[in-house]
Amino acid sequence: MAYNEAVRQFKRRFILEVLAHHKGNQCKAADELGMHRNTLSRTLAELDMDTAQIRNGMRRPPRSERPGAERIMAGRAMGDRTGSDRTGSEQMGQRGNRLHNIA
Predict the structure, then answer these.
(1) Range list of H helices, the chain
(2) pLDDT tens digits along 4-60
């Protein structure tokens, strides 16, 4: 492996790690790397790094593709609620009565 290729691979890995740390935010990554955002953008292009792919790789998957999403979505479809069966206004009424009785 030639020296230039080794340096190129190191730059790719290092920049990718910094971008991952900042969730693909080039401004923050450039600041940490001590360079201007435009310089980082130009370096990414020179290293043939696809910035759109980097950003998309940092995003959370859609709900339908997350682990356990089927269970959550099934519970919502059935009207499953966590907590009591009373509505919010009924719960507020109970709290209000307690506060009124204290005063």
Answers:
(1) 3-21, 26-33, 37-46, 51-58, 69-77, 88-102
(2) 999 999 999 999 999 989 988 999 999 999 999 999 999 999 999 987 777 777 666
Distances (CA, A) of 90 to 4, 11, 82, 96: 71, 60, 16, 10
CB 49 within 8 A of CB 56: no
Q: How far apart are CA 32 and CA 17, in angstroms?
A: 11
**Tokens matching residue 69:** 């999403």
Q: Which domain holds residue 32?
A: 1-61
Residue pair 19/29 in contact (Cβ under 8 Å)? The answer is yes
Q: What pTM was estimated for this model as a whole? A: 0.54
CB atoms within 10 A of CB 28: 15
The CB density around residue 18, as the number of other CB atoms within 10 Å, is: 17
Residue 6: give its domain's CATH number. Answer: 1.10.10
